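## Example pair
The file below holds two records. Each record gives the amino-acid sequence first, followed by its structure token line.
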Amino acid sequence: MVNESLINDYKAFLDNGKTERECAAQIIASAEKAGFKDIYKTDALKAGDKVYVQKMHKAVALFVVGSDDIADGMNILGAHIDSPRLDVKQNPLYEKDFVVYLNTHYYGGIKKYQWVTMPLAIHGVVCKKDGTTVQVSVGEKADDPVFVISDILPHLAQKQMKENAADFIPGENLDLIVGSENPPKGEGDDKDAKDKAKKNILSLIEKSYGIKEEDFGSAELEIVPAGSARDCGFDRSLILAYGQDDRSCAYTSARALFECKPGKRTNVCLCVDKEEIGSVGATGMASHFFENALAEVIARLPQGYSDLTLRRALANSNMLSSDVNAAYDPMNSDLFDRQNASFLGGGIVFNKYTGSRGKSGASDANPEFIVRLRNLLDENKVSYQMAELGRVDQGGGGTIAYLAAKYGMNVLDAGVAVLSMHAPWELTSKEDVSQAFNAYKAFLTL
């Protein structure tokens, strides 16, 4: 049954969380309202305490301390809060024949042609030499300007239309139009015409944000679709929004932790960055962020820190890798094994293994763990479906599951089915988001 209050809050989360920084900030703000404290502001922890650890404003680990010895393991919900997008380069602003552009580099797996000729917004931060940080969000308000990437008119696209879909929009052509200037009317009419439009844009940026051109070198600006999450369909059963991979699972995981009561086992929600490019970097799951955060928790418990306690806590844990799965697409049914596909409205998706072509790079969950979860969800009347991404030879994908499994814990991918995954606008079912939330709440009682 659809939880309308949850869905409305989820859509607001998406609208205010177009970047991983914005998502992390929302999660921390909600955590503090729910009684969580910054771990670095406390020296000791006991059963029932709630703390969080954040890394570079782009990854968050939240803990509800249980009454049992943490070495006996934790219940972990692990999601990622980054999504495919375009990133602004370090020296981005240029003028070409009276049109001003921002130079970009795409992030994660995208179909480049999907990003042209649609309204786009700019989100992010600019760090200035004086120590201040400027928050940027342009293109979301009704009176904001939006930005766009141009494409070739069909009348002149004969060569383009013969190229492969992967090639006919080169990555270097995904540059954002941010302004223009009228060309001079005659030779020598405007001696200052060169870069006049760029200078005008720089003047507007400095006036609005106090940002100079050199400040782009210490900026983190992301290009995302402009606009809000919307109900889709006459029956309003679906949600159309940017970034639902994997914010549909991150939001419901965090919300489940906020609503759980302290129990015997320590419960954790982990929201990390960089999954879409291999979980790399200081804020990705492949880093030591999570184990370092856990070490800080253990160090504040009565028994104190030991490396053995840390290793046992990780090895004895249960984790749901809260990540999305491809929804069955009736218009492209040949890409799916229908008996092993996930359907919109079918409930949370259990994906036993990920990877591609012969399970390469897979995390493969143990059946003993899966049956415990099946029993748990059946007892709590939560709808779920067992599925894989698509047909064996069609490709594949991965999640953070294999990086958690390296510690020896039980891990299973469990998330929301998404149609048009990695497109600028993705589709999910309200029913599935509701059931994912119910499943995550039940999991935290293990």
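Second record, same layout:
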Amino acid sequence: MRQRSLIAITAALAAGALTLTACGSRDSGDKGNGSADGGTTVVIGVDAPLTGDLSALGLGIKNSVDLAAKTANKKEYVKGVTFKIEAKDDQGQPSSGQQNSVAFVTDKSVLGVVGPLNSSVAESMQKVLDDAKLAQVSPANTGVSLTQGPDWQHKQVRQYKSYFRTATTDAVQGPYAAQYVFNKAKKKKVFVIDDKKTYGAGLAATFTAAFTKLGGKVVGTEHINPDTKDFSAVATKVKNSGADIVYYGGEYPQAGPLSKQIKAAGAKIPLIGGDGIKDDTFIKLGGPAATGDFATSVGAPVETLPSAKQFVDDYKAGGYKEDYAAYGGYSYDSGWAIIEAVKKVVDDNGGKLPSDARAKVTAALQNVSFDGVTGKVSFDQFGDATNKQLTVYTVKGGAWTTVESGTYNGS
């Protein structure tokens, strides 16, 4: 942190010099778009929680995009273009995400942004990036309204042409979980809890709607403050409700202690949540009480996919200190989608980036289609992933184990 003053001075001096060149990057050492030697550096921005409670997921996102950039460079996938990433920490906070968006927009060498993790952070970023025609691809956002509008249940309207995602949405994930809970786990009475944030509340809502439609009964609801660690009051309500399962819309920093305290209160029933709780930290926080809990997550387990073998091997060989975590494959695919779009734009412009590269990259993303780490990668008319696969996991023997993978059948 103390080095930032020196870095800022150096960057300012470099920026002053680079104003003499067209489309120069503000990062010292970059060749810049359209530099004199013909080489071009394209920056892929990464926005994720790199510190704080959610950093286990955020660092996996950053590293996986970094691997995509390095792979493209090694292959010389886009002739004359070198990719690099610029990762910024949002700490899971919308205000930080918005600030990071402004910084990405200001840096003209940034032609795409991967992230964020949190849907609430995405809400603060979308307009800033869209106004600048700067493409954004999230590997983790599942809030439906981000792409289809606040009234998506009745009328779907695309919100921002520059926003895409490789993860499927809560419109699929919530009902998929409800089907598993009601039909497979044979649980008929649920207590629904959420953290009041965009992701958690939205996921809880889609689960609830599908569960009640199937014939299940919601015996209680509660909204928690994600900044607290004491859930004893809600745990008592769960115990007294007669619920045979708890559905939690939120993330693992709260879900782990919540599960532990529910069991401690005497409610020996499982907790199930979405991809936001599917991290090993949930198990650490929940302790032995987490055994038997469930989570749904986007896609199939990366380790089981033939399409992901190269990614897994390359990630290990890359020497990254942190695990690729729940969104590693989707992050790599998000970065590669931007790389594919850049390649299309360069190929269509005689081997060079045009002056309006950002707008053209965004337009090219809409038609990107390739076989990725997580399967077929492409986007529908809203910018949503066409891959709707999901997986149910359970905690067994101190680890997440796969129960089943599939897609929501809509019935």
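Notes on the second record: Residues 55-75 form the longest helix (21 residues). The chain has a mean pLDDT of 91.
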